[in-house]
Amino acid sequence: MRRLLSWSFVRHLLRLHLGLFLFGLAVAVMLEARIGLDPWSALHQGVSEQIGWSFGRVSQVVGGLLILSSWLTLQVRPGVGTVFNMAVVGPWVDLLRVQSWLPHPAGLVLGTGQFLVGVLIMGLASAVYIGARLGAGPRDGFVLGLSRRSGWSIRGTRITVELVVLGIALLIGGSIGLGTLLFAFLMGPSMQAAFKLLRVSKDPSPSFASDQATW
User: Is the per-residue pLDDT at 100 higher than 90?
Assistant: First the structure.
């Protein structure tokens, strides 16, 4: 209990929530660019239309399956960061999308520019919240666990996973747009660059006392 109430834990918790806020901002920025869904969202949409479940329910089930498979096959332990990721990013997205200062670009060029900014923000957000060492979200944890197990770079692993998800989404009727392709190819490099910049470990399992968590 004393450890949980320590300044170290509070600092890591604050970093977690800063990262999740930035994550929600990134999603809101990309959605308002209106040039296409990311591959996972396209997959959720396609599954939703195929089986009649809501988009949110499909997202929760897929997230739960990813957490379980990452834990059992890749030894990626969930933590409070995993729970918060699933609980607060959605509300942040909803809140930020209705703010008057959030741009709503008209046209493909401006929309593409805004989408790219969103990808950069999401890469930074991933490094910030995972660097808190309180656990990763379902998709980030799976990518990082696979990267650690395979020896591939974060960039290469993320691109591979996103392209596989994109292919499945395409087969089942998910919406594929320019943003879907941009995200698939650019999220990995953005994430890897942010991890190097902030010196974040590739291990997504919770360990908030680790010296590897640095600003």
Answer: yes
